[in-house]
Amino acid sequence: MEHILELYQKPYDPRRPLVCFDEKSTQLLAHITAPRSLKPGQATRQDYEYKRNGTRNLFLFVEPKAGARHVLVTNRRTKQDFAFAMRYLVDVIYPEAACIDVVMDNLNTHHYHSLVEFFGKREADRIWNRLAIHYTPAHASWLNMAEIELSILSKQCLSRRIPTEWTLITEIVAWEQARNERKAQIRWNFTVNDARHVFKEHYPTALTC
Q: How far apart are CA 193 and CA 209, in angstroms?
């Protein structure tokens, strides 16, 4: 935990971006009957029944100190999807960065071997050697600032019925562009000292004296 918190406290360095990575599944839901339009003094009304058009996976990259984020929409969340997401991060989002610090949780797909399986060792090494991976501890995914950004995405963009993948992508692109233009940052205030106070029963006595 302290390793992640120390990483967050480092000053912003555009030459070595700090990126938080996470994923989220979202449903595609279509109306069966047309909703009733908004009227003065009355909110939009919709039938409780809907048509389910499957699910999509969202990969989110957020650079909290720079106020930048990027979202990839995929059909699934497999090792292959993760491998392509890491290549996208290295080659498309940050092609000039020599090294990228990446904070992510330790899922079974979030590993070097996922890249080897689909790209081969040489390409996997090329991609992985440009990444410094920082895994959040078990049961501590809250340390990943990408969860904050996913929560904002859910509230501002996904909190209604979205019927098709095309609509989902266009809505996310518009949301992403607006937040990037504002350079909306995430200001993380929980420090190592805070952790040692809040979780002091889990620390050795020498660290809490």
A: 12
pLDDT, tens digit, 9 for 90 and up, residues 94-111: 999 999 999 999 999 999
Closest CA to 119 of 85, 70, 71, 73: 85
Pairing mode of beta strands 18-31, 100-104: parallel
Strands (E), the chain: 18-31, 50-63, 68-74, 100-104, 131-135
- Rounded to 5 degrees, what angle do the CA atoms 92, 140, 74 make? 35
* CA distance linking residue 146 with residue 148, whole number of Å: 5
The 10 Å Cβ neighbour count of residue 19 is: 25
Number of neighbouring beta carbons within 10 Å of residue 204: 7
* Sign, CA torsion 87/93/99/105: negative
pLDDT in tens, 19-71: 999 999 999 877 667 665 656 766 666 656 667 889 999 999 999 999 999 99
94-133: buried (b, 16+ CB within 10 Å) or exposed (e) per residue?
Answer: beebeebbbbbbeeeebbbebbbebbeeeebeebbebbeb
